[in-house]
Amino acid sequence: YRMHEEGARLVRSLPGISHATAMLQDRRGDLWLGTENQGLFRLGSRGVEHLPENRQVRSGRIASLFEDAEGSIWVGGNGGLYRLRETLFSNRTTADGLSGDYVRAVMEDDRQRLWVGSAAGLDRIERDGRIVPVPLRNSVGRAPSVLSLAQSRDGAGWAGTFGDGIYRIDRDGRSRHYGRAEGLAAGNVRVMSADRDGNGIWAGTQRGLVRITEDGVHVPTAKGMPGGLVTALLASDDGLWVGTIEGIRVLRGNTVQRLDVDSLGGGRSIFGFTPVGDAMWITSDRGLYRYRDGQLARVGLEQGMPVDTVFEMVPDRLGNVWISSNRGVLRTTLAALDDVADGRSARIEVERYNEIDGMHNAQANGSTGPSATLRSDGTYWVATAGGLSMVDPARLQHFRERLPPPVVVESVRLDGVPLHWHAQGVTKVPGGQRVTVGYVGLSYLMSDRIRYRTRLEGLDRDWIERGNQRSVEFVGLPPGDYTLHVSAMHPGGRWSESEAAWKFTVEPLLWQRRSVQAAAGILLLLALVALYRYLIHRYKTSNIRLASQ
């Protein structure tokens, strides 16, 4: 109910919610309801939402709700104190209905349905969000482990498996199996790509390539085609691109071209191909390669990539590029990649996302495919060892608009020994010692990713960015008055206007004191006068001795 002058007015009926014990309206206008023993609910534009059981607060009465300055919701109840925070990524796991959490492939079909292949079988996420298992069975009656997915031009879905061949699922849900009896090599089918010239597919096996058409399974005979494990595959207008653990082959008609990536950074294992304009981007065990106009360029560890092995590169509609790896999902821009590949920039700025950002498991899977995809609604989906993770790139700006964290000076050490210091006033620091100042941004949101910058007034003219380094050290500061300014920001956000400032004075050493320097000057002057008088005396004595001879 909402209270008005004329009385209470019913806003929404809540069938099934028997006893609300706490209520909060957040900054977005959503209403949070704590209950006696049914957990936490949210009422907003999406209707009534209830936290899943595996993420719900422990059973018992919710007594209080509070929203902090960063938008986190704090929940106090019989089960303890909880904090709910909004994350960039969301997930689909077995708790949501997937057959398995170890997801290897994800693909959207022409009906905007999402196909998900995992170690426990094949699922389909319908447009309304429902997860429907696709019934496939191997020779022993079990669901096959699905490694790769594709959709052919006739709308049929294809699933490559771990040791159980390939399944074709037509639009009516009927499936057909291709195995050794049909001429398919034994082993794993890690990658597939729709045939651009018909209603079949190309498939990469442990013994090279095959082409499956309405007529059956065919093995290409072009000289130079790889005969071992195929780890990446793409049928494009520029030919059939084939990635293996020994580099790249491109099939054009009956001609095979070999691209030598080993000589540029030592790349060998190829995991994916992404055409962007007139360039082909290639993911590998040595970072990213770009092939354009017959030339290869590389963006790897030396150019700022945080990891060596990357699996799938997916551009979105906002200029971002999402890159999966077994150590999280990376994000940069296509313009930044081109700048490094063209030599206009030496290093690239990359953001890395993991469990802190909401991923259930930051280990993205690769060497199967497609292991990540961009849906028609603009969302990015990636296969991980802990389910399927999703991010809406359009929400990035919302996360960047968060208030920057306030920052405080946390500690001061002199030659490693803690110093009793004052936030207000001026702290005296003996000269000749190593000064180490620790500081911290006050935030519950991704605190280990907060970036810092410092400026030592009295020495520095400009700010010096420190990354996520939480201390700064000064050695050999000359005597004088200083003020250390510290500012912080969340990744991609803005710098905090409220700075931490610590004022201190470096006291001079004994020989640096003015009184000592004045006394030393007087002594030096007296010594020079004495030396002068001594030399004059010797000169006169010498002249007298010479005159007497």
Automatic annotation (TrEMBL):
Pfam families, alphabetized: Reg_prop, Y_Y_Y
GO molecular function: phosphorelay sensor kinase activity
UniProt-recorded name of the protein: GGDEF domain-containing protein
Keywords: Membrane, Phosphoprotein, Transmembrane, Transmembrane helix
InterPro entries: Ig-like_fold (IPR013783), Reg_prop (IPR011110), WD40/YVTN_repeat-like_dom_sf (IPR015943), Y_Y_Y (IPR011123)
PANTHER family listed in its UniProt record: HYBRID SIGNAL TRANSDUCTION HISTIDINE KINASE C (PTHR43547:SF2), TWO-COMPONENT HISTIDINE KINASE (PTHR43547)
Domain of life according to the entry: Bacteria
Membrane spanning stretches: 518-536
SUPFAM superfamilies from the UniProt entry: Calcium-dependent phosphotriesterase
Domain Two component regulator three Y: start-end pairs: 444-506
Keyword Acetylation appears in the UniProt entry: no
Keyword Transmembrane attributed: yes
